[in-house]
Protein: Ribosomal RNA large subunit methyltransferase J
Organism: Oceanisphaera avium
Amino acid sequence: MLSYRHGFHAGNHADVLKHAVQSLILEALSIKDKGFSYIDTHAGAGGYALAHEWTQKKSEYLTGIALLWQHREQWPELAGYFGAITAINETMQAPADTLDFYPGSPKVAEYFKRPQDSLTLMELHNNEVAQLRENMAPQGRRLAQHYSNRSKGPTIHHTDGFTGLIGLLPPTPKRGLVLIDPPYELKEDYQTLAETMAQAYKRWPIGIYAIWYPLLAKDVDRSASLKAALAQTGFDNILCAELSVRQQAQDFGMHGSGMMILNPPWKLDEQLKSLLPRLAETLGQDPSATGHLAWLKQSDK
Ligand SMILES: C[S@@+](CC[C@H](N)C(=O)[O-])C[C@H]1O[C@@H](n2cnc3c(N)ncnc32)[C@H](O)[C@@H]1O
């Protein structure tokens, strides 16, 4: 039974890290005219109304994206990410400059998509996939015509993202990004992820893969064993970007999150090295907040 609903957490510090990294990678892929493939294994609902009762329950975006949004001119390196946020608010006809809606990873990817690029989204939860289809449908007839003239919309599969991914590899176009963002509700997700990546390496070793993972309390954190398992999957270049916003507790709670990037694009390490400490400074909730970048594996080639 799947109970995780991303709407409760939309725009929090973990989304900021994930979508900032996702945007930087898609920006790098957009430098060349050649098309890219984007695959989202755990897509969620696509986009979120911040006034929704679920999001309002803890208003996690207030200690996440809202803190950057109000000073966005100070973050030129995140212009692409902010562009995706502006785009969803404009599409939903929110008043100029307001932050009423927040893009999930599918909407972030849609913002970067050009006619030559392809988007494939997978989601297993019945209600979330229905929302995803609705949110990714062209808005209104005029827009529908606009879209059909320029490019194909995303392909959406109601399926398991781990097995679904293997069936899609290698994708066409043959360059691109896979975003893997499981809820880790099931303990097996960690093991399944590592096994999936070993298979993905055999089918598409040159793809860029960005994997989100939580940083949890000492008694329950599994990030170290996840890293150890991913280091064995065959990929030679693995970058880990971690943002911790508060002190790690002993028994319960998420104090931050990480993005593991397999085959990161050129210069992403430099971009993240300067971005992460600034994110920690802005999103930190106590003095122990840190932004940390490390190569888990790096080839000498
Ligand atoms: C963290 S949310 C995704 C958020 C989204 N990637 C974003 O950044 O906006 C995880 C999603 O994975 C879905 N999910 C859980 N297990 C799944 C599976 N095995 N395959 C595909 N989706 C799954 C959940 O229903 C949930 O919507």
Summary: Residues 2, 4, 6, 18, 42-44, 104-105, 122-125, 128, 160-162, 181-183 surround S-adenosylmethionine (CB under 6 Å).
